[in-house]
Amino acid sequence: MPLVELTDVHKTFPAARGRTPVEAIRGVDLTVEAGEIVGIVGYSGAGKSTLVRLINALETTTSGSVQVDGREITGLKERELREVRLGIGMIFQQFNLFRSRTVWGNVAYPLEVAGVPAQEQNARISDLLHFVGLADKAHSHVEELSGGQKQRVGIARALATNPRLLLADEATSALDPETTQEVLALLRRVNRELGITIVVITHEMDVVRSLAHRVVVMEAGRIVEEGPVVQVLSDPQQPVTRRFVSTIVDDEPDAEALAALHARHAGRFVKLAFRGDEVRQSDVFAVLLEHGVRFELVFGGIEEVQGETFGNLTLALDGDPAAVDAAVDAVRALVPTKELAR
């Protein structure tokens, strides 16, 4: 049974004065299996944050079913929802820490609300602060911490009640690149060592590449594409997905860049798409050399995600036209190949 299952979920917000109702979520079906990390990406207004608020019952559906850990949560009373939320941790973009409390006090808060005995609280807080690397900051106040340290406190607090599910809403958007990678590494440990399922809401495809097993792409309140991260990054199907992927993976030069490249490099341009390790760059280069074709890499690159490689390389091919024709045909038999017109 999936840990989270949404079936034909709709969420419409009532109309403000003089305006029409807002359909934030439109017929979404989504499953999240126990133990996986799912990245939900979309531009502003796509509905991704609303979707998370439906999962933790901070918003109610207009229609459809939301099940968490096998329990239907739509229609539950507030007391029952509090029980469900104890099994769901939440971390936020702006940390949402209590400034009046120390690091220890912030992590203690959900345990106090849950009525955990003081001795058990102390052991749990100590374990968590060691886990996130902040044992030496236990009695520091929030204002004394860096952004990355604040988010570590947020993660420790979210883990306090031993949740099975962790929801991260733009959890790295306020951090610099180096600190972002540290926080993502911590989240990978949370998943790997504690077995906690994670749903990450983000507009940064690099976060998905670094963290998630599976990606869900949202647009205008709908899921438009989903699949394993490597599959979606290497072969995006929808325009919105291709826009996201283009921020981290070079596809092919646009018309302006292509014209500039042609001004600097002679020959015919072809784009080669590499997927996995069955065909290596050296295999393709060997074919070109066998046909007496000179080549130069002018655009693109190769990525590695979760042990699998993929990427796109644009080559400028120069030589006898007949030899180039034969070489392109031979290369096309190895990898997807597209000739780029001037």
TrEMBL record:
Species assigned in the record: Nocardioides pinisoli
Transmembrane spans: none
GO molecular function (one): ATP binding
Signal sequence interval, chain numbering: none
Source organism superkingdom: Bacteria
Classification via InterPro entries: AAA+_ATPase (IPR003593), ABC_transporter-like_ATP-bd (IPR003439), ABC_transporter-like_CS (IPR017871), ACT-like_dom_sf (IPR045865), MetN_ABC (IPR041701), MetN_ABC_transporter-like (IPR050086), NIL_domain (IPR018449), P-loop_NTPase (IPR027417)
Keyword Cell membrane among record annotations: yes
Annotated ranges, domain ABC transporter: 4-245
Keywords attached to this entry: Amino-acid transport, ATP-binding, Cell membrane, Membrane, Nucleotide-binding, Translocase, Transport
Name by which UniProt lists this protein: Methionine ABC transporter ATP-binding protein
